[in-house]
């Protein structure tokens, strides 16, 4: 006998570290639920934008360096198809191999097959110290330092390692830890920056860049050069989420996206990369068009 | 059967001369079952393609011959996945064993589907990188099987499961066409949709995987392993709950119940654990400067929860001993019982007592031995039922317990499988979790790539039967 359609209710489970709340919740709403339990949701791009808009704008946030993309931190959803039918996808537990992974497929599909109504978020232990360290100096030194950092066993313990472009590009390293561990992080980063002749500054500033205009998914060895290259476009600022191989570009004019991506698109595709933008609705490739048509037919979507 | 008497064999020999084709009962006996040994199905033939190109041509021949096609790696699945449930051909990937590239700078590697985890780990060691998923069959299981079942393992509490590490894959579809979904960059490539997400964990029902691009991470500089025993479930749960919230974020949190401990202690693998106790084994890893700071606080979590015998070490030999009891379980089951069923479910951690009691009550009532281990950080429960499949009544009892267990798992908000997949063992339980609309969405996926269910029929969903 087939079960009744099941849906997630809003809840928080501090033991499992999972929180179900509306997909349109913002950072403050998430913190309001998670903080009292000593938990946090680290994957944020923006303080005020609804989480569903953040997820739609990029599969990655800076803290994906440590915790993975959104799709590894959203364990389940209540999903509304374009005609209003509602289904549950995913689970409230973190680990599941139960049928086809529609959760990750739909999360990557933008709004082409509907929208998320509620998310089940995977939360992480919240610590009392959050700091950002900025390493600055010659670009070649930054490149060398970045390569060394990505191969260090510290990588698993840094919330993010970002290359931020600008007049003076810098490496931005985010640390979230118990205060009694802070000296260990400081000692490591101090010695590390010296060994690459880089200056080191710390800041408690938690500012987020917001939702990017353009996202380029490449591989970690190409990400720094890709970001530096994209930043040459007038007025563009780029943040490379280095271990994820992702560049977030913030542009003064979204109309310039086509001009920016056209020269790099075929090289990106060749290595299994791609670009996406919240300002652009892409088309399917000819080969997958019949697959999408079958999917839409089977899902009863007009 | 010979090529001269059988057109399918003739076609296979013609298009894939480097392939080995087996049809004799003695040759095929090893392919009758996977780790779910009591459910066996005899294939009509077994093909071992010499390389990926041959594999694509073999699939085309079998498709044209309208034979069920089941891809198989090492056959260590525990859910009845890589077996010929509807007869037909087993395509064995054991010769696709090349590690094509390790990109140290790019933190990725490209491997063929028949590469096993130990082979990959040995190849990665000089680079200082690792591929973290570590199912207990790691020494022999293949990457292809891992991707098909989205395998996990003890260390995935922090590092994640297979799907977190697949950047891309190459798949042969039914018509023999070869497609690459993703690649070293881990994005969509030229595709609009992220099709690889549907392929990972699809249990061989959508295509035949030939190679993968996998994400690698730096090896930890230092590891501490802890072992603690607890006199009751309440103190055990306190320890688990304390560990999952600890900022040291343990890599693994493994649990053995007193029946599993007793099984080990009554064997040659005994390590001197107190009888009637629960056992927790946990690990932290990272840079030495950080993990050394964390050791005492993790030990204190274990002690304050109620353990009087917390042991821990950062020495490789000691660590092996601390993990020994947990690692011994898999091999012991086969030694002490003619058959065993390793169940796999994920539960909210608060429901542990509820589920363990059900397992004990059901097993005791049926007179079936049961020993439970768990990836406790993830709530991934593995009750092991020991029985003799030559006794039909025992098989019925074990399957009845499994069904009621899964019903309870669903009731408490859990998942039917965390890392073994559904296979043919649990396909009958899928209607417990999917309503009519969700089921429609699920069954639409094979309609795209495998509408006749020729790839691995009668797996995952009972509706998936190939009409030859």
Count of strand segments of chain A: 15
What is the level-2 CATH architecture name of the largest domain in chain A? 2-Layer Sandwich
In spatial order, strands of the major sheet of chain A run: 11-8-10-9-13-14-12-15
Major beta sheet summary of chain A: 8 strands, antiparallel
What does this structure look like?
- The complex is a heterodimer of chains A (about 300) and B (about 475).
- Helices cover about 30% and strands about 25% of the residues of chain A.
- By secondary structure, chain A is of the alpha+beta class.
- Chain A has an eight-stranded antiparallel β-sheet. In chain A, strands 1-2-6-4-5 form a five-stranded antiparallel β-sheet. A two-stranded antiparallel ribbon of chain A has the order 3-7.
- Chain A is globular, with a radius of gyration of 20 Å.
- Chain A starts with 10 loop residues before the first strand and ends with a helix.
- Chain B has three domains: about 5-90, Uridine Diphospho-n-acetylenolpyruvylglucosamine Reductase, domain 2, CATH 3.30.43; about 100-220, Uridine Diphospho-n-acetylenolpyruvylglucosamine Reductase, domain 3 (2-Layer Sandwich); about 220-410, 3-Layer(aba) Sandwich (Vanillyl-alcohol Oxidase, Chain A, domain 3).
- Chain B is about 35% helix and about 20% strand.
- Chain B contains 14 helices and 19 strands.
- Chain B has helices at about 5-15, 25-30, 50-65, 115-125, 145-150, 155-160, 195-200, 235-245, 260-265, 290-305, 315-335, 350-365, 390-410, 435-450; strands spanning about 20, 45-50, 70, 90, 100-105, 110, 130, 165-170, 180, 210-215, 215-220, 220-230, 250-255, 280-285, 310-315, 340, 345, 370-375, 380-385.
- In chain B, strands 12, 13, 14, 15, 16, 17, 18 and 19 form an eight-stranded antiparallel β-sheet that branches.
- In chain B, a hairpin with a 5-residue loop joins strand 8 (about 165-170) and strand 9 (about 180).
- In chain B, helix 1 (about 5-15) runs antiparallel to helix 3, helix 8 (about 235-245) runs antiparallel to helix 10 (about 290-305) and helix 9 crosses helix 11.
- The relative contact order of chain B is 0.12.
- At the A-B interface, strand 5, helix 4, strand 7, helix 6 and helix 7 of A face strand 9, strand 11, helix 10 and helix 14 of B.
